[in-house]
Design brief:
Layout lengths: L1 E2 L5 E2 L17 E3 L6 E3 L20 H4 L41 H46 L1
């Protein structure tokens, strides 16, 4: 109800638009005690709507492309040179590569497990030897100290 100067009342309908998207915080102030945020005017306006264009956007022709097949040559090229009439290629630095015996996946897995166990054993041995050596050094220091006290 709205009150006018001549004391008449009239109903006024007010429409409230609820935004479906959350706008980013573009600036403003926050009340320290209540936590209420007061935004600048630019953050309270509705976003601009995109004008309608005459181009149809959701048809099959716009969403698909024509496929093209093109061959591609890489930049890395390799070549070999062989000895023939008029060309001599030295074979002094050549090395012969011999095939090794084939190892299956199970054999490779067993090798990895055995080497891992061997590394663990060496590590434990190092820990034990380190403590043993450390204890011998301590015993040696104690004996020297006792000899100093007796002299």
């Amino acid at each position: 109800m709205l009150r006018l100067d001549n004391v008449q009342y009239r109903d006024v309908v007010v429409e409230i638009e609820r935004a479906t998207l959350k706008k980013p915080f573009l600036g403003g102030y926050r009340h320290k005690q209540t936590g209420v945020e007061y935004h600048h005017a630019g953050a309270q306006t509705m976003p601009r709507s995109r004008p309608q264009s005459a181009v149809q956007r959701f048809c099959r022709d716009t969403q698909t492309t024509q496929q093209r097949h093109a061959r591609q040559q890489t930049a890395n090229e390799t070549s070999t040179q062989m000895t023939q009439i008029g060309t001599y290629v030295s074979a002094q630095q050549d090395r012969l590569v011999q095939p090794r015996p084939y190892t299956s996946a199970d054999e490779r897995y067993r090798t990895i497990i055995n080497k891992a166990i061997f590394v663990c054993q060496l590590f434990k041995l190092q820990l034990i030897c380190g403590t043993v050596v450390c204890s011998f050094v301590l015993i040696d220091y104690c004996q020297k100290w006792l000899n100093m006290l007796q002299n």
